[in-house]
């Protein structure tokens, strides 16, 4: 599984989404599943999946799938 | 017999007083420990004592709790070494007695930063490690000054009252994850903070304690041990006084 796939899996698991959901199109609070509680679950998934510990500012910054990739890049998680 | 075998507990302000005694009692119950303080030498000496006496694994973390990056790194190291966190004892703090008119801005910033902001940040990171395992116990150290207030303690009381608010709110937010958050409000305890008082002030404090004696660090550490153990699994959001019936 590459990092993009791991990130998608983290979104699906943390937000409790259907496998077929287009996660690239999601933005924070745009669906009922992505509320502040689910957001913290997502953060826990990202910490675990990529063996990092996100800064609070970065946690707040993750407002979409693309933004998550951008933030994770700061932690040396590479996306091709 | 309380057993904390297989549990990892993080104690801040572990180099002396209540934090040191809590570390020893938690290790005696079988817990592995992460111990934080600023002085590496003192931490190493405590680590050696605990490992030799109780066989616990001890990770020492020398840093200033006001430094958020260092705090984050401490939690990363705990995750790396132990893979889990079962308890946080948010103990580190400072006490500066000043009458209201003598409180300057730098004292306000310093006391709130150490006693309140740093505790909240530690609570925040601890909760992040505990949430995936859906269990954990966080023990915040407040004070009788935070529950009752005292002359010359406006700043310290405010910081410790803040701990009570943080404890109650966090307990509500984290209960559904199986994480308990409680606070202890010690009275007059034999620590460096107490022994630095003038004889007159010391005796005055002693006279206000119904049980007629100063509290020992063991008295508070025993309550910490209880709150970190399986004996308190249905207790959260509580502020437990450990004060011998002190009246202020």
Give an overview in words.
The complex is a heterodimer of chains A (80) and B (248). Chain A has 80 residues and is mostly helical. Chain A has one domain: Non-ribosomal Peptide Synthetase Peptidyl Carrier Protein, Chain A. Chain A has helices at 3-15, 36-50, 56-61, 65-73. In chain A, 22% of the residues are buried. The model of chain A has no long low-confidence stretch (mean pLDDT 93). Chain B is of the alpha/beta class and 248 residues long. Chain B has one domain (8-242): Rossmann fold (3-Layer(aba) Sandwich), CATH 3.40.50. Chain A binds chain B through residues 40-41, 43-44, 47-48, 53, 55-56, and chain B through 72, 75-76, 79, 124-125, 128, 131-132. Chain A: This is Acyl carrier protein. Chain A: It comes from Paenibacillus hunanensis. Chain A: InterPro entries: ACP-like_sf (IPR036736).
Q: Gist?
A:
The complex is a heterodimer of chains A (80) and B (248). Chain A has helices at 3-15, 36-50, 56-61, 65-73. By secondary structure, chain A is an all-alpha fold.
Strand order of the largest sheet of chain B: 3-2-1-4-5-6-7
CATH superfamily of chain A: ACP-like
CATH superfamily of chain B: NAD(P)-binding Rossmann-like Domain
* CATH architecture term of chain A: Orthogonal Bundle
Give the biggest beta sheet of chain A: none
Secondary-structure class of chain A: mainly alpha
What is the helix tally of chain B?
9
Protein name (chain A): Acyl carrier protein
Organism (chain B): Paenibacillus hunanensis
EC number (chain B): 1.1.1.100
Domain Ketoreductase (chain B): 7-187
Descriptive labels:
heterodimer; A: 80 residues; mainly alpha; Non-ribosomal Peptide Synthetase Peptidyl Carrier Protein, Chain A; B: 248 residues; alpha/beta; Rossmann fold; 7-stranded parallel beta sheet; 9 helices; 7 strands; 48% helix; 15% strand; globular
């Amino acid at each position: 599984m590459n990092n993009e796939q791991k990130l998608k899996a983290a979104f699906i698991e943390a937000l409790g989404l259907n496998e077929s959901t287009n996660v690239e199109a999601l933005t924070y609070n745009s669906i009922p599943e992505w509320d502040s509680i689910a957001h913290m679950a997502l953060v826990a998934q990202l910490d675990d999946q990529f063996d990092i510990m996100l800064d609070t500012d970065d946690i707040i910054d993750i407002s979409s799938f693309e933004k998550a990739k951008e933030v994770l890049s700061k932690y040396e998680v590479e996306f091709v | 017999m309380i057993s904390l075998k297989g549990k990892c507990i993080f104690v801040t302000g572990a180099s002396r007083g209540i934090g040191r005694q809590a570390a020893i009692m938690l290790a005696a119950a079988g817990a592995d420990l992460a111990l934080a303080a600023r002085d590496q030498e003192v931490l190493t000496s405590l680590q050696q004592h605990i490992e030799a006496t109780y066989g616990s694994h001890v990770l020492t973390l020398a840093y200033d709790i006001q430094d958020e990056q260092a705090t984050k790194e401490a939690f990363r190291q705990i995750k790396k070494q132990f893979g889990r966190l079962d308890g946080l004892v948010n103990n580190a703090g400072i006490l500066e007695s000043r009458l209201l008119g003598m409180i300057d801005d730098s004292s306000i910033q310093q006391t709130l930063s150490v006693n309140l902001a740093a505790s909240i940040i530690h609570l925040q990171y601890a909760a992040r490690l505990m949430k995936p395992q859906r269990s954990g116990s966080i023990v915040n150290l407040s004070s009788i000054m935070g529950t009752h207030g005292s002359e010359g303690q406006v700043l310290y009381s405010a910081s410790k009252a803040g701990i009570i608010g943080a404890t109650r709110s966090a307990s509500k937010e984290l209960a559904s994850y199986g994480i308990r958050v409680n606070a202890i409000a010690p009275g007059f305890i034999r620590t460096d903070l107490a022994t630095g008082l003038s004889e007159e002030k010391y005796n005055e404090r002693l006279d206000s304690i119904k049980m007629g004696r100063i509290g020992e660090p063991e008295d508070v550490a025993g309550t910490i041990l209880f709150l970190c153990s399986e004996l308190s699994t249905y207790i959260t959001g509580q502020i437990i006084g450990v004060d011998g019936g002190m009246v202020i």
